[in-house]
Prior knowledge:
10 helices, 14% strand, 7-stranded mixed sheet, 335 residues, alpha/beta, elongated, single chain
Amino acid sequence: MEEGKRYVRLGVFVVVTVSIVAVVLFLLGGRNLFQPTLTFETYFKESVAGLDIGAPVRFRGVPLGQVTEILTSSTTYEGDVPIEKRKVFIVVRAKVNYSAAETEQLKREAPLLVKKGLRVQTQLAGITGQQYLALDYFDPAKYPPLEVPWTPKYTYVPSAPSLSGEIIANVQAFLASLDEADVKALGQNLNALVLDVKKKVGELPVAELSAKTDAVLVSANSALRKIDSASARLDGILANPGIKQTVDNAAAFSGGLRKLADNGELDRMVKSIDDAAERLNALIGDNQYDVRVIVQDLRVTVDNLRVLSESVKRYPAGALVGGPPEKVQFPGKSQ
């Protein structure tokens, strides 16, 4: 009896554990199995090196799904076709994760979107060399769908060449458009250009240019020597103790002024000067008449001194003794 109960408990434990594991797996990713998806395929004529299974699918940068298969048309659709008639395209299939309603709508509208210009293009993801599928709209007349003799297994979205592939194709087309005559003419023109360049180089006055270059170098060397001499004299001037003392005094004076300004002494000095000027103006205003009389007396005194100075210059003795000397009478002349 006890042994039967143990088996029951063990069975219940196993069932509960398996149920819990199943629920966890479903929450971690198992529900994706029940999520509706849309699988589409496209074909490339060029290499898709760098595109791997699991690479993202984006529409103008918006993530839509991932690449699920990368195959060749020879093994997928052309197994019974003779080798010389096979297309040998690269078949790329991808899944787009949408809700059920959006998936059904996209399946219905896919042919219309393709006619409008929806195309698949491989693009590089950064500088790592990895590629992804990019969906976007292109000119349907410039990039028509590839003609295939089989019926696609999934919704078919045509491809457009990648940017690098388009550049290579344009270069190849340009090279193919050049015929033998054009290439020969181009070679002849290049040879003529090389000969012309050699002739022009031979006509250059090399000796004259060399002499001018030497003269320029001599002038440059002389200028450099003068600059060195001026720099040495400037260093000597700056090394003079008097210059250093002057700079130190100026710095001390500037420091004193800054100290006065910081302590407010400079402002008080300026205010004292302003007060003295105001008092002087008031004093002059109150004694304006007396000042005018004093100035007039000073002018008269100056004029008298000027007359006295002129008299002293003409009659030095008269200024000390008396009047001017009497005139001398020469013999034979009447008075």
